[in-house]
Amino acid sequence: MEHPPSPISRVRRTVRQAHLWLGLGIGALFALLGLTGSMLVFYTGIDAVLHPAISQVEAAPPPALDAPAWDRALATGRARWRDPAGKWTLEITGDGGTIPARYYPMPGHHADRMMVWFSADGARIVRAEPWGGYLMSWIYQLHMQLLAGDIGHQIVGWSGIAMLVLLITGLVAWWPRASWQKAFAFKRGAPPIRRLRDLHKLMGLWSLAALIVLVATGVFLALPAVTQALLSPAAVPASRSAGGASSSITVATALTSAQRALPDGRIVFVDIPTASEEPIRVRAQVPGDPHRRFPGSYVFVDQHSGRVLAVHDVRRAGTGSLIVSWIRPLHDGSVGGLPGRILAMLIGLAPAFLFATGLRRWRHRRAARRASL
């Protein structure tokens, strides 16, 4: 007489089914996001290799904050793009060579931005391409929003939550009831379908913790409203320059003012506004901020007087802001330096492997069931 399955067995069977159908439903998307994410870990370096004109610029020491190169680059860009409503962002890499910049014909519309690289002295444009119009930026958009704008952001974010469930159900389905040694084993002499199962199992276990971190941080990046609701980071000040003045300070003046306001900060971006009442915004990395390229501290400088209007120091902005500052560097692996980025790149390959092995095993078992009928 057969005994009915125990409640635990029924739960495990349900979890396995959930894992199977989630894998079949979103596995291909998970693989796509993983592969594109792997490529983006080193996307600036790959992009430079693909565009030799950037690397062929004569090597020169990075310009100082008070150097004329910043204002010369701005003037060169404005001579090329004459839209008075256009907004400019200059990047201070500290590496020398070209000066990367972004030009927004319509402020706030990231999809319309032009990526520009100036010569080291700011006197000429080395390269200019629309965002999304060259390979690495296209891959970036595919990864972040599936080339579908705001709707794509929502799809990526909410499907990321389903991916977390997929990972957790995989762990529950694997959890051993008896021998842990057997649960971690790989049977070399077993039939191919069993070896495939072991490969899927071991890859999932090896990459599980890192995948959970990458997926969870990806959800926060794709769904900023959810991030705001859960973590409540401090709002960045909304400062305004004094109106009525006709002249503006130089970019170099704004940079030196910002440096005085955050003397231990490393300046990485400066946003030059369009409207006369908007301040110049300078972005900086302070000690303890884990992201080198996109840190969370800002200095707002009056574009007419050079007076510092407000400082947003992530170290003093509360726990929520501190947690948010870790999301991007955990997602791209930069928190661990070069080893961390290499690990993030390798982990990004795991979803494709898991999807391929899981799909092949499912098809093999389905074919075996049909053959037995």
TrEMBL record:
InterPro entries: PepSY-ass_TM. The chain crosses the membrane at residues 20-43, 155-175, 202-223, 338-359. Keywords: Membrane, Transmembrane, Transmembrane helix. The keyword Membrane applies. Coiled coil: none annotated. This is Iron-regulated membrane protein.
